Each structure stands twice: as structure tokens, then as C-alpha cells.
């Protein structure tokens, strides 16, 4: 370097052939290689965790589309790998002497603007991930969230689609799903109350009810256990109420209740007709 502070050609040559220079270059290259290796290891660990979570989902009762879950896992993998590689690039640029302050400041302002503009969308997507991976509900389940109740048709990253039993289809943003009642996790219980007038003998009526529910249990595919005749639920001035409970498959309790009501009504008519023929008065 001359008196004016300018580099002369021999200065470049001396600096290029200096041991200290190559030691510095070698150390920088070594750190860059270590950063890249650590990044790859971190990505592989994250991928294995996601694959393990996917395997556990396949062994649960979750009935969502397998292609959808694979798509979500692939999306998460892309997000993880892109984030890690972006950090690696920043670290490498820092090692070779590039000032990252302006770049990070610009990225921060841009990210802040996007965050304010799309915070609802981000909330919906994050909630959608948790709904799927926590197995809160699945396609085919009957759920209620807020004032909406129906069967889940689609679980998307942004919205969930419900179809009510009367045919209405509701599109609910995942971010607004705060509390969910799932009716499809366990068997349902059908509760049937039968009113028996005082002109029918109670013991005869209960015996007829037991025979009727036993026959219907043998024929029905919805009932998983023979219905129980619990006995008299209440006593009125002109009638008594007998309660029957039946454990049945998920969301079939209404159909089972209607079936038992119809068959028990026929049995009660037969009991009453028999009592009338005998001239019994109770």
C-alpha cells in the first residue's frame, strides 16, 4: 500500500499468498460447511418427527382423507426446510462479511405488513393444523360448534364444512371454532319413555316391553347391547312412565328411539286388547 492508502499490485499478491489469509478463508469455509451440515441434520430430525406423527395418525380413529394428511405433512416439511435454509443463507452471508442489518430490517417491515393484513388467514390455518393433528374431529363425525350442528364433510386448512341433517351446508372458518362437541367418539344412548295408562296392568306392560325390546335387539344392527327396562320413571294421576335405555352405534339413537317407540306401542295395544277381552279392570 502506498502513501495515498491505495493498494499496489504486489500488495494483492502478498495478501493472496499470505498464510493468515488462507487460514482465515479456511476457517470461514469450515464454519460454512458446519452450518450447512447442522441445517441438514435439523431438517432431517424435523422430517422424522413429522413422519412419526403421520404414522400415529394412521393408527387412530381419524377418518380424514389420507391424501389430505400427506399433503399437509408435505406442506409442513416445505415450510420447515424453507425456514431452515433461509436461516442458513443468512448465516453464510454473515460469515462472508455481508451486512445483514438492512436486509433484516426490510424483511421485518414486510413481514409485519403481511402479518397485519393476513392475521385472520394465519389464525384459520394454524387452527386447522391443530384440529387435524389433535384429532378433535374427523370427516364423517357429527359435531356442534356454536350454533351449528351437523356432519363434517370437509376439513380444510382454512374452513370446515358441516352439513346439517336438514340439508344446509355451513362453511365455518377454523379460527372461529373455539369449542367443539363431538357426538361420534362413543356409542350413543337411546332413552325411551313409555306412558302406560292406569287401565293397563303395569307388570304385564313391563313384561311385554322386555319381550319387545329383546326381539328388536336381535333384529337391529344399530343396537350394540340389549336395551334395559329401568322401571317406572314417574307416576301420574292417570298413567305411569316406564323408561328404557338402549346403547347403540354412534348417532343412531334417534332411529333406535323411533323404532322402539313404534314396536312398544304395538305391544301395548296387544296387552290392552287382551285385557279388554278378559274383562280385567285395573
UniProtKB/TrEMBL annotation:
<dbReference type="InterPro" id="IPR049142">
    <property type="entry name" value="MS_channel_1st"/>
</dbReference>
<keyword id="KW-0472">Membrane</keyword>
<dbReference type="Pfam" id="PF21088">
    <property type="entry name" value="MS_channel_1st"/>
</dbReference>
<dbReference type="InterPro" id="IPR010920">
    <property type="entry name" value="LSM_dom_sf"/>
</dbReference>
<dbReference type="Pfam" id="PF00924">
    <property type="entry name" value="MS_channel_2nd"/>
</dbReference>
<feature type="transmembrane region" description="Helical">
    <location>
        <begin position="71"/>
        <end position="94"/>
    </location>
</feature>
<feature type="transmembrane region" description="Helical">
    <location>
        <begin position="24"/>
        <end position="50"/>
    </location>
</feature>
<dbReference type="InterPro" id="IPR011066">
    <property type="entry name" value="MscS_channel_C_sf"/>
</dbReference>
<keyword id="KW-0812">Transmembrane</keyword>
<dbReference type="InterPro" id="IPR011014">
    <property type="entry name" value="MscS_channel_TM-2"/>
</dbReference>
<feature type="domain" description="Mechanosensitive ion channel transmembrane helices 2/3">
    <location>
        <begin position="79"/>
        <end position="119"/>
    </location>
</feature>
<feature type="transmembrane region" description="Helical">
    <location>
        <begin position="100"/>
        <end position="122"/>
    </location>
</feature>
<feature type="domain" description="Mechanosensitive ion channel MscS">
    <location>
        <begin position="120"/>
        <end position="184"/>
    </location>
</feature>
<protein>
    <submittedName>
        <fullName>Mechanosensitive ion channel family protein</fullName>
    </submittedName>
</protein>
<comment type="similarity">
    <text>Belongs to the MscS (TC 1.A.23) family.</text>
</comment>
<dbReference type="InterPro" id="IPR045276">
    <property type="entry name" value="YbiO_bact"/>
</dbReference>
<keyword id="KW-1133">Transmembrane helix</keyword>
<dbReference type="InterPro" id="IPR006685">
    <property type="entry name" value="MscS_channel_2nd"/>
</dbReference>
<keyword id="KW-1003">Cell membrane</keyword>
<dbReference type="InterPro" id="IPR023408">
    <property type="entry name" value="MscS_beta-dom_sf"/>
</dbReference>
Amino acid at each position: 500500500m502506498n502513501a495515498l492508502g491505495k493498494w499496489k499490485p504486489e500488495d494483492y499478491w502478498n495478501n493472496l499468498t499470505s498464510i493468515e489469509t488462507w487460514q482465515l478463508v479456511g476457517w470461514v469455509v469450515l464454519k460454512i460447511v458446519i452450518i450447512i451440515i447442522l441445517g441438514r441434520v435439523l431438517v432431517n430430525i424435523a422430517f422424522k418427527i413429522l413422519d412419526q406423527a403421520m404414522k400415529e395418525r394412521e393408527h387412530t380413529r381419524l377418518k380424514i382423507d389420507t391424501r389430505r394428511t400427506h399433503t399437509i405433512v408435505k406442506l409442513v416439511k416445505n415450510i420447515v426446510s424453507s425456514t431452515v435454509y433461509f436461516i442458513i443463507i443468512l448465516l453464510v452471508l454473515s460469515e462472508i462479511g455481508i451486512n445483514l442489518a438492512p436486509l433484516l430490517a426490510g424483511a421485518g417491515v414486510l413481514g409485519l405488513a403481511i402479518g397485519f393484513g393476513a392475521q385472520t388467514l394465519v389464525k384459520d390455518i394454524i387452527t386447522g393444523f391443530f384440529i387435524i393433528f389433535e384429532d378433535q374431529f374427523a370427516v364423517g363425525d357429527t359435531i356442534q360448534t356454536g350454533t351449528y350442528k351437523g356432519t363434517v364433510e370437509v376439513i380444510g386448512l382454512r374452513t370446515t364444512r358441516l352439513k346439517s341433517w336438514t340439508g344446509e351446508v355451513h362453511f365455518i372458518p377454523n379460527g372461529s371454532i373455539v369449542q367443539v362437541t363431538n357426538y361420534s367418539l362413543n356409542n350413543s344412548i337411546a332413552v325411551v319413555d313409555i306412558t302406560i295408562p292406569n287401565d293397563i296392568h303395569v307388570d304385564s306392560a313391563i313384561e311385554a316391553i322386555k319381550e319387545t325390546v329383546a326381539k328388536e335387539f336381535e333384529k337391529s344392527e344399530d343396537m350394540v347391547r340389549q336395551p334395559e327396562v329401568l322401571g317406572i320413571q314417574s307416576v301420574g294421576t292417570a298413567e305411569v312412565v316406564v323408561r328404557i335405555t338402549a346403547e347403540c352405534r354412534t348417532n343412531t339413537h334417534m332411529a333406535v328411539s323411533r323404532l322402539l317407540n313404534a314396536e312398544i306401542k304395538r305391544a301395548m295395544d296387544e296387552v290392552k286388547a287382551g285385557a279388554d277381552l278378559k274383562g280385567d279392570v285395573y
